[in-house]
Structures are given as structure tokens and as C-alpha cells.
Amino acid sequence: MSYNFEIFHLREKNIPVDSVEIKEPIHAFAWEPVGSTFAIVHGEATNIQVSFYGLKSGQQPVLLRRLEKRSCNSLFWSPAGQFIVLADLRNNGSLEFVDAVDFTVMNTSEHFRVSDIEWDPTGRYVITATSSWKSKSEDLGYWIWTFQGRILSRNNLQKFWSLQWRPRPPTLLSPEQQKEIKKNLKKYSAQFESKDRMRLTRASKDLIEKRAAAMKKFEEYREGLLKVWNQQREKRLELRKKVDTDSLDSDTTNMEEEIVEFLVKEEKIILD
């Protein structure tokens, strides 16, 4: 038994059809939302593979990369494209975050008994969740990750069922403006990094000023206590029969010296 994917080029004359033959069982298939790449999970249970194919006008689908021996049965593309999560929605819940530009595995992790995976509309964050629909254990809840696979927070909730990201409104930029921004992204990144550094500098300045104000308040409080302590000196001397106990070297007559000697018994054993 073999499996075929029939790809129809709807925007070309006479709608030509390309065929991709896979000689192994298919477990999952998913198009990249932005772009012309699709991914397939296929293979026997002992050797699951993930294949990425690219399409170009007037050309046959090209195999871009094949990842061997993967533990996954589902595919989740980022809404912005490029990034994809290879997930095993069975009990072990293994996760693999892949950059489809050069097929770099950015991170591998797991979320035990994961049942749902949802990308946020911007493609910057992804949520993995374990719902009561699948599991009755105490590990219900959702985890938030970056698109690179770095965990941000773990949130455990009893009787957790489902969640959904708030839809993102459409952009007000025209396609030409979006292309211009992508083209000059490095220039904009430098501007944003400069603003971030200014914010950090301002935050450091605020922290220094806050600490200086706290130190000034403490010094004023300390000076007030010293003033009261000095004013009460005569009263302390009167209560202590003119003995100035505030000074460490003021009274040496009440000191006693005690010498303790320890006798040590030594025994020597002489063997003939």
C-alpha cells in the first residue's frame, strides 16, 4: 500500500496537478500558513519521520529536509510561518521546536499528557495544555513558551477544560509597507535596541535615586537618635554612680583576671 498527495496549482492555466508519493503510513499533514511549504509525519511506529516539501510555480514539489526518528504525531505551524512545533499528543507529550528556514532544532522538551497546542496570533508565543477532556490526573493546566521553546510559565488549574487566544486585529499597514519593514528590519531593530538600552538606563537611574533617598532617610533617623542619646548622658551617669559605661575603656577597676591551669597526664609504654 502506498499514499499519494495530489497538489492542484489553482492559479496556473488548466490547473496542473503534482503528485507526491509516500510509501509509508501518514500520521499528520500541515501547510505552512504563510509560504508554500508543507510538512508530513510518516513512517512506522518504530521510525517516525518528518518530511518538509517546498513548492514553486511550474515545478515539482521538492523535498527540503527529512528529520529521522522523531517522537511526534502532530504538527503545529506558527501563524506567521517559519516556525513549527513537532508534538506527540500521546502520554509522553514530547515537544520539538524547529526553525523551518534551515531546519534547526531550537529546543526539545516535554509536557506530560499534553492534549492541546495553540499559537498566539503573532507567532511569538505558544501554549501547551492538558485538559480534563483527555486526562483526569492532577496535572491539568497550561504552559506558555516562546517560539524558540523556552518555558515562560507553568499554570496548574483544577477542572481545566480549554483556552483560546484573543484574536489579533488585522494590521493597518499596506502590503507594500509590510515589505518595506521586513526589508529594513535590521535598521528598525537597531532603533528598538537603542530605546531598550535607554529604558534600562532610566530604570537604573530611578533605582539609584530611590536608594539614595532611603539612605538619606536612614541618616536623618540615626542622627535624631544620636541627639537624644547624647542628651540623656548626664542621666545615665547619675543612674550608674558616675561610671561611664558608654566608653569601653572607662572602667577597668571592676575587671578580674582568672588563670585556669590544666594538668595533663602522660603515659609512656616502653617495650623491651
Automatic annotation (TrEMBL):
Q: Which UniProt keywords apply?
A: Cytoplasm, Initiation factor, Protein biosynthesis, Repeat, RNA-binding, WD repeat
**Residues in Translation initiation factor beta propellor-like domain copies:** 3-162
The answer to whether keyword Cytoplasm applies is yes
One Pfam match, given by its short name, reads: eIF2A
Asked whether the keyword Transmembrane helix is assigned, the reply is no
Q: Which GO terms describe its molecular function?
A: translation initiation factor activity
Name of the protein in its database record: Eukaryotic translation initiation factor 3 subunit F-1
Species of origin reads Nesidiocoris tenuis
